[in-house]
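If I may wish for something, please walk me through the protein I am sending here so I can picture the backbone:
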Amino acid sequence: VLLGSFLLRKWRNASAADGWHYPVSTLTVGGELDGLSRITRMAEGFWHQVAHPDSGLDPGDFPLVVLPGVSHFQFASGKPPFLVRERDFHPEVTLENAHTAIA
């Protein structure tokens, strides 16, 4: 399970026969207002993992969900590190509601 993250492009290889080389089925959960793992990167993952998977790839093995109004740091708790404070977007849902949605 990837929370506030995504499968790296290195696992997708257009020149290979099967095109996809990630060894483990993976659920990807992102936030709509994630300032570090941006929604555009989640959309790219959705395109390749779910909507247009390579031959031999079962989209059910790599589901991807984006939670409305959730920011990057809402996948955690405590005090955010400097980079997160600088780059993350302001959430539209409370931390409690975000954690409930993530769970």
Summary: The two ends are 12 Å apart (CA to CA). The beta strands are 2-3, 28-33, 64-71. The chain has a mean pLDDT of 90. The helical segments are 39-51, 82-87, 95-102.
